[in-house]
Design goal:
It is built from three helices and nine strands. By secondary structure, the protein is of the alpha+beta class. The strands form three sheets. The protein has a five-stranded antiparallel β-sheet, with helices on both faces. The longest helix is centred in the C-terminal third of the chain and has 15 residues. It starts with a strand and ends with a strand.
Length: about 180
């Protein structure tokens, strides 16, 4: 089932998330989030973006494989993730977000991260990601922390995006996918 994606201005995007309890039945939610992500043509979706304040996000970089070969089979579920290490080496890249349609800005993030998380079967993993994989994971992880990518841009760029963000929050912006204001 395709879920509505919450747009900027929805309280769920800023609400603190809670850990998913071991053994919770999240398989249907994950399937619905994957269907939603595919329909919206995105590369990541966090539970707060569908109105749930839990520590869960999914990524699917398969469609990016032509430009980012390391993302070809990058389809993963992250439950109760924690970034345990970040590189000092930073990179800037233009990001967008399904919750902020029509906005893209350069965001500086660590080039490499190590993250500890549970998969859909609640098995623990610790993996290191670099380059675009690391960017996707960090962007979605931010949603679990109550942040959106515009929180990480320079003050001058924040001024330039303020009007667009206000328009989204006031319902003056539409998206090409199912959404909730």
């Amino acid at each position: 089932m395709i879920l509505p994606i919450y747009l900027y201005g929805q309280a769920a995007l800023r609400k603190p998330t809670e850990e998913v309890e071991q053994g919770s039945d999240v398989k249907e939610l994950i399937a619905n989030m994957q269907e939603t992500l595919t329909a919206a043509e995105g590369c990541g979706l966090a539970a707060p973006q569908v109105g749930l304040s839990i520590r869960l996000f999914i990524v699917d970089g398969s469609e990016l494989g032509e430009d980012y070969p390391d993302c070809v089979n990058f389809k993963q579920v992250f439950i109760n993730p924690e970034i345990v290490e970040e590189s000092d080496d930073k990179v800037s890249y233009s990001e967008g977000c399904l919750s902020l349609p029509g906005i893209s800005e350069n965001v500086v993030r660590p080039k490499t991260i190590t993250i500890r998380y549970q998969d859909a079967d609640f098995q623990w993993h610790e993996e290191t990601y670099t380059d675009f994989k690391a960017r996707i994971v960090q962007h979605e992880y931010d949603h679990l922390e109550g942040h959106v990518f515009t929180d990480r841009i320079s003050p001058i760029r924040k001024q330039f995006t303020k009007g667009k963000l206000t328009d989204i929050a006031k319902g003056k912006t539409v998206a090409r996918y199912k959404y909730k204001r």
